[in-house]
Amino acid sequence: MYREFILDHYKSPRNSGSIENADIIHKEVNPLCGDQVEIFLKLNGSGTIQEVKHLSRGCAISVSSMSLLSETLKGKSLKDAAGIRKEDIIGMLGIPVGPVRIKCALLCLYALKDGIVKYESAKP
Amino acid sequence: MMEAQLNGLEVDKIRSDFPIFGRLINGKPLAYLDNSATSQKPAQVIEAMSSYYREHNSNVHRGVHRLSIEATLAYEEAHKKTAHFINASSMEEIVFTKNTTESINLLAYSLMGLLKKGDEIVVTQMEHHSNLVPWQQAARKTGARLKFIEIGSNGELKREGIESAITKNTKIVSAIHVSNVLGTVNDVRHIGQIAHENGALFAIDAAQSVPHMPVDVGKLGCDFLAFSGHKMLGPTGIGVLFGKKDTLGSMEPFLYGGDMIREVSFEESRWNDLPWKFEAGTPNIAEAVGLGAAIDYLRGIGMDNIESYGKSLVRYAYEKLSSAGNIEIYGPPPEKRSSLISFNIKGMHAHDLAELLNAEGIAIRGGHHCSMPLMHLLGITGSARASFYLYNTREEIDRLCEAIGKAKAVFKV
């Protein structure tokens, strides 16, 4: 489970940080363990993701999932980003994720999707 | 054998009573170090429950037929054993619930009638959610104020914090006896004295103490005491609320319905005698029988022996872990703690550690331990926790330390 690249993403998460004037800011907490990821997305005029940051505090699986996901988001439309499936996340991790750790792996996806839903529903 | 000679417990013999220790986890013998979450069950408990279902199963306090009488006697006998175990005066003071959480909910709901705006409820900063959230809700619904006894940097309650938190406006004080995170054994007798000097009721969350040390409600001087059967070798689904007879007698029921009534008309009802007034509906009869068998088992070994053995294990683990390096241990030194130890390896999340230990057949807990405010106070989101019981050995602690070393190598920390 703890392959070299997972540990690498855990120790040096890509796109770590925050965006001050982000269009989408959303924090998701895993109530079972208290792990949290906060995602920041900056959009360009046509609604495409221009910049991605995140603040992640959690286990190797939750942090590396968020890190891996963050690398795929830039240049995606919100619609495409909202269409990312849990199988895509598991595919990116490339390791068997059991029923317990799946919640860690998918925390980033919930943060992304709920953030997009929140943004869309706040539109006039 | 060494274990037996060293500590007065025949651990090899004890282990042979627990069928689950025959299991291999990832090809390794199970080292079960998650006893603060729940304990394993000896064959004596499993057999008592199975025999109840095979030979005596019926509903209680109802029929006049043979099985119903046997089931009622067995169910009441479990109350009597529990009363004797914590030195309550009679089974009228023993209410069976589902678990500690339900026991405290019963209290919070039933005592809400005593509370009004301006009153205070006092708990500690090291409560499990079970002894925090029910009181938060009681405060919210009545306008009472929830106050906290603070923890010092040593992981113990501040003595002056007890006296400053409890005032003449305090109606209820509820405190955890042994912290499920820090292992701290709180001086609940002292807290109870201050509570009573101020005219408040005093409750104890004893989920982590009753399984591990002799507990005498008379000596502790509490009005209420809550604990769970499943952490003391008994089954899940059975918990206990001890309450002083006069206090329970004056309280409103929590759940209404069958078996808790004396007389019902279309308009109104009168309540049954104690403790049945608080046990509405068909109870967990087999679980009560299982709890009785667990108490017999524990008494057979002796709670003093179990306490001193637990202390010897935690001292051994504390010393070994302290010298591991790159480790942060939470809570007081071993002489002031019960048989559990929470820690973090720097640079490794507790869940990752738990996962890697699992590969070695070792079961520990990683997470916030249902104590999120305390985690916040400690500045962490979670910790690893190894918790011991009468069937654990020093050899298992050696395996734990060795496996932590391996995990550190994987994470290069």
List keywords for this structure.
heterodimer; A: 124 residues; alpha+beta; Sufe protein. Chain: A; three-stranded antiparallel sheet; 5 helices; 3 strands; B: alpha/beta; Aspartate Aminotransferase, domain 1; Aspartate Aminotransferase, domain 2; seven-stranded mixed sheet; four-stranded antiparallel sheet; 17 strands; globular
Structure overview:
The complex is a heterodimer of chains A (124) and B (413). Chain A is an alpha+beta fold. Chain A has a single domain, classed as Alpha-Beta Complex (Sufe protein. Chain: A), CATH 3.90.1010.10. Chain A is built from 5 helices and 3 strands. Chain A starts with a helix and ends with a helix. In chain A, strands 1-2-3 form a 3-stranded antiparallel beta sheet, with helices on one face. In chain B, helix 9 links the parallel strand 8 and strand 9. By secondary structure, chain B is an alpha/beta fold. Chain B has a 7-stranded mixed beta sheet, sandwiched between helices. Chain B has a 4-stranded antiparallel beta sheet with strand order 13-14-17-16, covered by helices on one side. Chain B contains 15 helices and 17 strands. At the A-B interface, loops of A face helix 13 of B.
Secondary structure layout:
The complex is a heterodimer of chains A (124) and B (413).
Chain A: H1 4-11, E1 24-29, E2 36-43, E3 49-57, H2 60-73, H3 78-82, H4 86-93, H5 102-122
Antiparallel strand pairs in A: 1-2, 2-3
Helix pairs in contact in A: 1-2, 2-4, 2-5
Chain B: H1 2-7, H2 11-16, E1 24-25, E2 28-29, E3 31-32, H3 43-56, H4 66-85, E4 94-97, H5 100-111, E5 120-124, H6 133-142, E6 145-149, H7 159-165, E7 170-176, H8 188-197, E8 201-205, H9 217-220, E9 224-228, E10 239-243, H10 245-250, E11 261-264, E12 269-271, H11 285-301, H12 303-322, E13 327-330, E14 340-345, H13 350-358, E15 362-363, E16 365-367, H14 372-378, E17 383-387, H15 394-411
Parallel strand pairs in B: 3-15, 5-6, 5-7, 7-8, 8-9
Antiparallel strand pairs in B: 1-2, 4-10, 9-10, 11-12, 13-14, 14-17, 16-17
